[in-house]
TrEMBL record:
<dbReference type="Pfam" id="PF00561">
    <property type="entry name" value="Abhydrolase_1"/>
</dbReference>
<dbReference type="GO" id="GO:0046464">
    <property type="term" value="P:acylglycerol catabolic process"/>
</dbReference>
<keyword id="KW-0967">Endosome</keyword>
<keyword id="KW-0443">Lipid metabolism</keyword>
<dbReference type="GO" id="GO:0032281">
    <property type="term" value="C:AMPA glutamate receptor complex"/>
</dbReference>
<dbReference type="InterPro" id="IPR000073">
    <property type="entry name" value="AB_hydrolase_1"/>
</dbReference>
<dbReference type="GO" id="GO:0005765">
    <property type="term" value="C:lysosomal membrane"/>
</dbReference>
<keyword id="KW-0472">Membrane</keyword>
<dbReference type="InterPro" id="IPR050266">
    <property type="entry name" value="AB_hydrolase_sf"/>
</dbReference>
<keyword id="KW-0458">Lysosome</keyword>
<feature type="domain" description="AB hydrolase-1">
    <location>
        <begin position="70"/>
        <end position="311"/>
    </location>
</feature>
<keyword id="KW-0496">Mitochondrion</keyword>
<feature type="transmembrane region" description="Helical">
    <location>
        <begin position="6"/>
        <end position="32"/>
    </location>
</feature>
<comment type="function">
    <text>Lipase that preferentially hydrolysis medium-chain saturated monoacylglycerols including 2-arachidonoylglycerol. Through 2-arachidonoylglycerol degradation may regulate endocannabinoid signaling pathways. Also has a lysophosphatidyl lipase activity with a preference for lysophosphatidylglycerol among other lysophospholipids. Also able to degrade bis(monoacylglycero)phosphate (BMP) and constitutes the major enzyme for BMP catabolism.</text>
</comment>
<dbReference type="GO" id="GO:0047372">
    <property type="term" value="F:monoacylglycerol lipase activity"/>
</dbReference>
<keyword id="KW-1133">Transmembrane helix</keyword>
<comment type="similarity">
    <text>Belongs to the AB hydrolase superfamily.</text>
</comment>
């Protein structure tokens, strides 16, 4: 009868609602992962795995190579995942071939040891990844942010034949004329007994909020449950994050990009948040001095997390840069 049908249909509706509420209250980390899964699906991104020997890479991709524009390979920053690019992918053309890979040891990519976490080690692994999925069959555009920007720049220096161009977003690995707020805090911590406390590796809610303020100029104002979820997903990886951090700030990697700038021959685009508190925007001038033909874009009212704070702008700048490179290439052909 009708009342029974209403009860049954109501029950069908209530169960997922209750599941959602329960997840939000008790397993916010799981819910955040489910949200990323939903967002990837909505954007048409599919998760894949590729192997190089026993080493496994996890990546998401959309589209097929060989289109009107080069493929994009996106490298995320320290302690992030391939999903940090979701806001940017949202604003890329739907037919643009794009690949977002989990960096060595992060999320679904194999976790090995320190040799893979220094910048040169990461470059070697990303080169393996490129070959494993056949991305090197035609020149592609490489994008990296922060730690990923350091890796992207060094990759461009050592594997120029793979690339048509590169975008470095707030890259680490330079000698910066001005210390950032993050570097200043690290120096202060080194003087105290809190040497194990790293602002980018939070262990409490307050430390997580402080990290987000450090990374984003625009306040995120996230609900407490979302913050709980973020912390819950990060905490089990903190030991790994510390191992990676010690490698990338160590003597071998600290200035990797700076030391390899003279080897970069590909066209380079630089995007930097003017209010970056993690790696100071003065690094943009360093890149312009070493790579006079590079295109520099400094974004007002934007911090270190360009992909989160200005995703539409970042996507548009990258696509405009690719279009400009294509025009330059055609003009060069006509002149020859």
């Amino acid at each position: 009868n009708i009342p029974d049908l209403i009860m049954i249909s109501g029950g069908i509706l209530v169960v997922p609602v209750l599941a959602f509420i329960t997840s939000f209250l008790f397993w916010p980390g799981t819910l955040l992962k489910a949200y990323n899964w939903y967002w990837r699906r909505r954007l048409g991104l599919e998760v894949h795995y590729s192997h190089s020997g026993s080493y496994r890479f996890c990546y998401s991709s959309r589209g097929t190579p060989g289109g009107a524009t080069p493929s994009l390979l996106l490298l995320h920053g320290f302690s992030a995942t391939k999903d940090m690019w979701l806001p940017v992918v949202k604003y890329l053309p739907r037919n643009q071939h794009v690949v977002c890979v989990d960096m060595p040891g992060h999320e679904g990519t194999s976790r090995t040891g320190a040799e893979d976490y220094c910048i040169q080690g990461q470059v070697a692994r990303i080169h393996q990844f490129v070959k494993s999925i056949g991305l090197d069959k035609r020149p592609f555009h490489l994008v990296g942010t922060s730690m990923g920007g350091n890796v992207a720049g060094v990759y461009a220096a050592h594997h120029p034949a793979d690339l048509c161009s590169a975008t470095l977003i707030c890259p680490a690995g330079l000698v910066y004329p001005t210390d950032s707020e993050f570097i200043s805090r690290l120096r202060e911590l080194e003087k105290t007994e809190m040497k194990d406390s790293i602002p980018l590796i939070p262990t409490t809610h307050q430390e997580l909020e402080d990290m987000l303020k450090l990374c984003c100029y625009t306040p995120l104002n996230l609900p407490q449950q979302v913050l709980r979820g973020l912390l819950a997903n990060r905490m089990p990886n903190n030991g790994f994050y510390k191992e990676v951090f010690m490698e990338i700030v160590g003597e071998k990697s600290r200035h990797s990009l700076q030391e390899n700038l003279h080897l970069i021959t590909s066209p380079v685009q630089v995007i930097w948040g003017k209010e970056d508190q993690v790696v100071d925007v003065s690094g943009a001038a360093v890149l312009k001095t070493s790579l006079p033909s590079c295109q520099v874009e400094v974004l007002d009212d934007c911090g270190h997390s360009v992909a989160l704070e200005r995703p539409r702008k970042a996507a548009n700048l990258i696509m405009d840069f690719l279009s400009a490179q294509e025009v330059n290439g055609e003009n060069a052909k006509k002149l020859s």
